[in-house]
């Protein structure tokens, strides 16, 4: 499990003034209280919890996970994610004795203040009934103590299923999990009929079985088919991380300004260690891209490229591996990826053209300062309102994108 | 290993235009060996980009699977069912000329994680047959599935197999049969590297290609340059500096990165409005004229800022990938000019080679060797 401590742009120890902040985006940066949320990572022993954690956050290769020892009890690790988000990752050993313990003596301790539960099912497991029974108990405890928690269920090791039948196997299992989740909730509801209907839980973006009733305790549930051997892992974890990223709407607003300013078709912002996509922006043209899985695919490609570099240069696998990348595919498209802020990489895909490309690179470099807040609990130097493209070009503020670009020599 | 490298070097020099009477079509790679030694996995991973982990689901091969590899040269890849013995088959007589008549290589796959005595015995009898009737066929032994085996153990196995083959051959009075050994696995680059070596021996005038790359490295001060077949990541030539697995790996992975980006962002048509806008004011130029280079080009600076990597598309099939020296990223304009020249030379080289490959009559394959009886 994990604790997320987010300091949402707030000064850690009181005293600093946050005053300067006046732009329209300021609303998003309203100081939220320092939040302490747990993220539980649970599932039967051997289901693959430690493997995913090591691959995503410690840059292990999938094949290295075979050497991981079993996790006994709770394995605590602190993962820094972006500057102001510390994951206290608690990987709970899944042996039955421990599971029992979480559910009994430690019940309140473990299940209070949970923001997210990640539950991992091993698709190869022989004893599906028993796995589901344990899951039901966990969900009951969760709903009892942290009814607002989000639940991510990962149907894992999907690579072991025949490619042809993967979708069916997943759909079948997903339906089963949804039903069991509903059952678990029903049990709790029956036990505590007197509980007043609380503010209903956030509506999900992914398909959930039933509409949220007023006193419905159903957790916000999302299911993913995953494997450490392909990009599916990045898709699931990017979703998990997504809502926990502080100042997300500010990031999104500023990425959009940047995208429009440099005439990009797509911008992806990656966290530098995990290479999970933190945020992205896509132009109308870019939305026509038929590759719906491209975000997790990019994470996967760049992450494995990091491994290659690490092997080649002999530097540690968690170290930074490349600083600058350019690719121009004739008159089809251009792209570049570069170290952005201390904690992020940025990837820009754009229309072809030498002058356009050079100017975009300059502008991205200049835009780094808009995103300083990604690196820690610091308030951005300038309000996003002033984040007009021209300002970034260093050519004085107020210039529109096309004017600025027109200033660049065409080839 | 050393021995293999020495052989390789020698071949590189002497390879020009193999004057066999059999060169009527595409060079052929024949994959043979015991059942489940990994033949189909190898051809799927190398020629069809199957992720290695998915080979677990491959059906066993019931008949000869023929693939052709369309690239700078056209190759045929034949995957044989392991259970049949083509030289001594009670049910069916194979047309040997149809199988071995082409210039090419026999790739004999041995599962290093399994008992290999029978495999080696069959290989020996195969070598004896071929040596007698088809001496132009290179025999390439892939000691396969070496992932999971320690380095020492791999070498022990290689030594043991080599000795068993040499002993048997010299007992039969055969010396200098063209047998080469490769340690391979589909889970890493070794299988691609092995195929590179195998294929290089089949390229006419390889020496010329190598000379071009060696020259490029000297003028641009590159550390290492490879000419890749982009689809398979087989390298068909490199410069004359010593072989170096590490630089092959990073260049090959770089090709992978580029292939992926190309697919995701470069393989779908953009709209008319998009183009119109980009070609309108203030650009007022077709996109084709807004770019500096019509072919794909790419560069990457590693974080230690020491050895940048560059890639340049040569044609539909080939790409040049080079590891540059420290700090040379600043000299890109001059480097690009030199690269332009070499790319032009390479294009001409393959234009000269192509018509010969596609000479009239070269296309039609030999008679089918037929199906295997169930
Ligand atoms: N085939 C396959 N094996 C996996 C996958 N994820 C993990 N494993 C393997 O499962 C075993 C147990 O994983 P581990 O992470 O220690 O499980 P944990 O007890 O839940 O932490 C290891 O040998 C992993 O290599 C997966 O997606 N596919
Ligand atoms: N560990 C390992 N297994 C391999 C390798 N190559 C193939 N295999 C496995 O060997 C089995 C048999 O492979 P297959 O290609 O069907 O063998 P064939 O009968 O010779 O065509 C499959 O389960 C493959 O996954 C390898 O390099 N390493
Ligand atoms: Mg564990
Ligand atoms: Mg087969």
TrEMBL record, chain A:
Region feature (Disordered): 188-214
Subcellular location: Cytoplasm
Superkingdom of the organism of origin: Eukaryota
Alphabetized UniProt keyword annotations: Cytoplasm, GTP-binding, Nucleotide-binding
Cellular component GO terms held in the UniProt record: fungal-type vacuole membrane; Gtr1-Gtr2 GTPase complex; nucleus
GO MF terms held by the record: GTP binding; GTPase activity
Location, primary (coarse class): cytoplasm
InterPro entries per UniProt: Gtr1_RagA, P-loop_NTPase, RagA/B
One of the GO BP terms on file: cellular response to starvation
A Pfam match: Gtr1_RagA
Function: GTPase involved in activation of the TORC1 signaling pathway, which promotes growth and represses autophagy in nutrient-rich conditions.
Stated family: Belongs to the GTR/RAG GTP-binding protein family.
Subunit organization: Component of the GSE complex.
Name of this chain's protein: GTP-binding protein
Lineage: Eukaryota, Fungi, Dikarya, Ascomycota, Pezizomycotina
From TrEMBL, chain B:
GO cellular component assignments: endomembrane system; fungal-type vacuole membrane; Gtr1-Gtr2 GTPase complex; nucleus
Ranges of Basic and acidic residues composition bias in the record: 1-14
Keyword Hydrolase: yes
Biological process according to GO: cellular response to starvation; negative regulation of autophagy; positive regulation of TORC1 signaling
Subcellular location: Endomembrane system
Molecular functions (GO terms): GTP binding; GTPase activity
Region feature (Disordered): 1-27
Keyword vocabulary terms for this entry: GTP-binding, Hydrolase, Membrane, Nucleotide-binding
Main location: membrane
Quaternary structure note: Component of the GSE complex.
Function (record text): GTPase involved in activation of the TORC1 signaling pathway, which promotes growth and represses autophagy in nutrient-rich conditions.
Protein name per Swiss-Prot or TrEMBL: GTP-binding protein
